[in-house]
Amino acid sequence: MTLEQLRALDAVVIYGSVRAASAQLYKTAPAISALIKNLETDVNIQILSRDSYRPKLTQAGEVFYEKARKVLNEAEQLKALSQRISGNSELLINIAINAICPMHPILNTLKQIEQNHPNTQINVSSEHMGGAIERLKHGEADLAITTTMNFDSRLMEASHLMDVTIIPVAHHSYPLSQMEMMIPRYEVRKYTQVIVSDSSRHDEKLSLDVVEDGKRCHVTDIPSKKEIIQAGLGWGGLPQYVVQDELDSGELVALNVEGYPPRISPICLIRRGHDHAGPVAQEIWENLKLQLNDV
Fold it and tell me: How far is CA 220 from CA 64, 99, 197, 226, in A?
């Protein structure tokens, strides 16, 4: 019996299929199947039932898996402990950040971390909608700073950092800006809504605050969305801190759209719950919570 076999079993149970587990562990589906079959041979137990489309734990498999999870947790804790004892910092930390988050307070924290751990490379990716959670779930990020869309409390741990208010806006010359009363949905459908596309690559694409059957313009980032709205080519929701100066000057106008009031998006610091962070990841986790909590 090996840890590699137990990790393969764990991935199949968590992600629901051999194919999904193979993507998570960067192995082929036949390799995952072989690891589990060899495990069953080693322990002389049928762990998974293959009678249905998706493999399920047998009664004996449930008992075995419960103990296997404890072994994997202990192994991760031992690895993290050895890093702390030896003083070895992680060589690389990947952080996925939802693009609606204000970067300045986050970067202030990361600057301090970089000074404390000069041998650790910190990579930051800007994501949209479900992209940050997806990167975390698939092992492509060590930490995510994002909303809790697609958050799975069985697999992840979250700590609230701040709230970001999203406001529907348009240029002051845009026809919707001339309407003083609440704008009914049937009316807003006639005008182009500018939408930032979900950056997820594997999971189902998410959308939020999108007018059904309305005209749309899809972009890949928030700065492009803001510029298009400022050019009078459409309307859309943007973080209040991004457009506050333009709202104050009158260049942009907050819209009163039926069913689309200003929305408060809680931003959380998230990590995989079954992981045991190394010293740098743990320091980032603690410092961000301390410095940004309820900002």
Answer: 45, 11, 6, 11
